Amino acid sequence: MKTTSFLSNAIEGYVKYRKASGRDSHSYIKNVILFDHFCAREYPGQIELSQEIVDRWCRQRPSECTNSCVSRVYPILDFIKYMNKRGMTKIALPKVPRSVPRTYTPHPFTYDELKRFFNACDNTKPRRGRLATIQRMTLPVFFRLLYSSGMRTTEAILLERDDVNLENGVISIKRSKGHDQHYVVLHDTMLALMRTYDENISRLVPHRKVFFPTPDDKSHPIGNWSNAYNMLNYVNSFLENGLTDQVQYNRTDPEVDKQIKLRLEGESYFLRAWWHFELLKMYGGKAKNGKALGIPLADHFISQDEAAQNGEFLRPTYQATVDFIVNDLNNAIELLPNVYQGDDLEFGNTQIGRATKAAAAVLKSRALLYSASPAMQDDDVTKITGMGQFEILNPTVYQAKWEAVAKEINKILGMEGFGTYVPVTASSIADVQTESSDYAFRRYFNNNLLEGLHFPPFYYGSARATPSHNLVKAFYAKNGYPATDVRSGVDLSDPDFDLTQLYAVLDNRFALNVYYHSATFGDSGQPLDMSEGGKDSPSFSENATRTGYYLAKFVSKKSAMLNPIQTLNSVHYNPLLRKSEVLLNFAEAANEAWGNPTVKAEGCLYSAYEILKTIRSQAGGINFDLYLDEMAQSKDSFRKLIQNERRLEFTFENHRYFDMRRWVLPLNEEVEGVAVTRNEDGTFSFKVQKVEQRKYEVKNYFMPLPYAELEKNKNLMNNQGWE
Fold first, then answer.
1. Does residue 119 sit in the same domain as residue 184?
2. 375 and 436 in one domain?
3. 100 part of a folded domain
4. 3-class DSSP state for residue 675?
5. Helices then strands (H, E): number in the chain?
6. 406 lies in a domain?
7. Are residues 64 and 715 in contact, defined by beta-carbon separation less than 8 angstroms?
8. How do residues 709-722 score in pLDDT, each as one tens digit?
9. Helical segments of 287-335, H only
10. Are 195 and 232 part of one and the same domain?
11. Each residue of 157-176: pLDDT tens digit?
12. Is residue 556 part of a domain?
């Protein structure tokens, strides 16, 4: 962090003085620099320190607890002492509030309480499936490890198998608060329990990396707050230490070394933006005072000393958070290459999968889109009035933000590699050797974990994710009309309607995403049978689909993937950022900004109408525009069309949940499924039925901040409804 005020020279000397005296406290230096920024911002014409400036800075803030104020003021007091001794000022030392002792009293568990707790761990009965089996095995061991070792919950969750030495009973803690690696020695009884657990869990999750895994060999999710800030600290540490003149990546060619450092710097800015946005989309929201807030920013490496002063970490505005993310992404775009190609070890095809200009640009468009969304404005601009309802109170400010966002995203569409739509196909997701040109940033797998999670039980899978009938009804017929519109050629209002007729007319994206009754499963040559008594029904296995559908997207078409006699692996690509997302982001922003989806604003490459026409044609095989023209008559109707197109385009790509929240769409829709019955004549009957009733409140548009963080930092403001 750079100094910017009239205090720059004094601060530079102060920093050198503290380092020379062995008092290199990052929190002290950070607070003095924050004081410098305050002086530069609030007193731009000032040339010397005044009592007014010091008193104003040191005054306890309304939202600040006493201990946090003390932590903020003490460094300034020390700095003024330094200046007074050297004749730089004669300012009186500020009064420091007295620290308030902590009143928390730990609760010692009784023997009976411990007995009941571990009895509950041993007898917990999760619902069903492979995950349930893993949980039944894990819970008794996990909590006994916490009890016997004193490990933090996060430390245990993030343990990798290699961190646990089952020979000598020593655990290496590498991911801890403050990033201080340390070791834990296991008691003999705990070591024996861990060995037994390791042996048993390895049969379920062979070749696992995580000690306490989920079925896909990932750490058990507890929210991404701690993990994201850990990642941010790694990135910031690299930015501060890994790009200096003392570090060389090519010792023979200084120019190549320079280019490598520029690329690594660009990747670091991208990753810092990525993790900040992951936190923002999860925890950003409105506070009780109606202000849209972001998340505490990590713009530097946070030491243990600074982390202990947690009351200093506050939530900036939502827009300020987005501005920070966008600034990092602009830096990344400037520094990163368009592609990695060739055989060069530094820049060649060995680097495929790393961040590029395109990846940074797509993420930038997403962050900008979120910043203009109705849920993320202050209450004096947009106000949520109920489930699925919001009111625009300041249309001028609201529309101006959409216009600004649309213009920025349009610039991205003009970059190399953008502006052309590339539809996702089954062959670009699984069982492939070459990835789609649409992928700007993606995961890569060469295994059968996804199949284990999502294949039907008949094919040895767990059917974890099963599409709903609600999703099926969201697709369009090939003539362009929604499935729920009689003009599509089907009438879903008829309770006795044969749904196989619906499946036959739906656009191409339906079969890409959903396996349905009578559809051929992969390359098996066998139709799926969800009817009572059928091989793919709940009567065959309790793990079978509850909705009458199975997931088709992302899973291999090799039906023998999980065959115990000869298991197979397959290449999978899981896109995290797609270039085509920028097109839909622009269409949404343009529709809101200019109010007419057919308008191509000055300087813009496309209209919202043109984009949707292209996507519906190329992805869905829809070449009839009557319904598209009908919806283009107003901004409101076209908005609904865009929202549904996003639902279909990004199905199972982790967009829908966040889109619904930012647009204040109803969250409590009843989840529907289909029950299939085989008739005596061999035909089938279909009955739409309720699978799940979701109960959400208005507060669920925003996530609560982690309770542990709120307990540690009383100045951290929670989101509306979670106070």
1. yes
2. no
3. no
4. strand
5. 24, 13
6. no
7. yes
8. 888 888 899 999 99
9. 304-308, 318-335
10. no
11. 888 888 999 999 999 887 65
12. yes
Query: Are 383 and 327 members of one domain?
Result: yes
| CATH number of 297's domain | 1.25.40.390
How much is the pLDDT for 710? 85
74 with 17, same domain: the answer is: yes
Separation between Cα atoms, residue 488 and residue 502, nearest integer Å? 9
Looking at 170, 204, 238, the residue that finishes a domain is 204
Tokens 């730089």 locate to: 88
Domain assignment present for 618? yes
Q: Structure tokens of 359?
A: 């990846």
Choose one of 156, 173, 204: the last residue of a domain.
204
Strand-pair partners of 692? 671
Nearest partner of 220 among 160, 299, 282, 158, judged by Cα = 158
Q: For residue 376, give both structure tokens.
A: 């993320």
Are 448 and 552 within one domain? yes
Collapsing DSSP states into helix, strand and coil, what is residue 171? Answer: strand
Q: Pick the closest to residue 264 from 138, 351, 186, 378 (CA basis).
A: 351
Instruction: Give helix 580-594 / helix 635-649 axis angle, nearest 10°.
Output: 170
Query: Which residues constitute the domain of residue 231?
Result: 225-396
Strand, helix or coil at 380?
A: coil
Same domain, 517 and 612: yes
Integer angstrom CA distances of residue 184 from 144, 156, 172, 209, 322: 14, 11, 7, 19, 40
Q: Where are the beta strands (DSSP E) in 203-302?
A: 285-286, 292-293
- Between helices 129-149 and 111-122, what is the axis angle to 10°? 160
Length of the chain in terms of residues written: 723
> Considering only CA atoms, which of 533, 495, 532 is closest in space to residue 688?
495
Give the helix ranges, DSSP H, for 284-419.
304-308, 318-335, 357-372, 395-413
Co-location of 548 and 677 in the same domain: yes
Q: What is the CATH number for 133? A: 1.10.443.10
Q: What share of the chain is helix, strand, coil (3-state, %, to 5)?
A: 45, 10, 45
Amino acid letter for position 235: V
| Beta-carbon count within 10 A of 182 CB | 10
CA distance 193 to 288: 47
Angstrom distance (rounded) from CA 519 to CA 511: 9
Model pTM score: 0.77
Give me the amino acid identity at 53: I
Tokens standing for residue 696: 């959400």
Element (H, E) at 230: helix 225-241
Do 344 and 360 touch, CB atoms closer than 8 A?
A: no
Using DSSP, state whether 620 is helix, strand or coil: helix
- Contact indicator for 570, 431 with CB cutoff of 8 Å: yes
Exposed / middle / buried, residue 254 (Cβ in 10 Å: 0-12, 13-18, 19+): exposed
Per-residue burial over 354-369, b if 16 or more Cβ lie within 10 Å, else e, is bbbbbbbbbbbbbbbb
- Rounded Cα–Cα distance for residues 704 and 701 (Å): 10
**Each residue's pLDDT tens digit, 412-421:** 999 999 989 9
* CA dist., res. 155 & res. 168, Å (int): 20
- Lookup: tokens for 17: 């003085």
Amino acid identity of residue 418, one-letter, is F
Sequence-distant (6+) residues with CB within 8 A of 93 are 77, 80, 81, 84
Q: 578-612 pLDDT, tens per residue?
A: 999 999 999 999 999 999 999 999 999 999 999 99
pLDDT average, residue stretch 291-315:
85
Average pLDDT over residues 91-113: 77
Domain count, the chain: 4
Mean pLDDT of the chain: 89
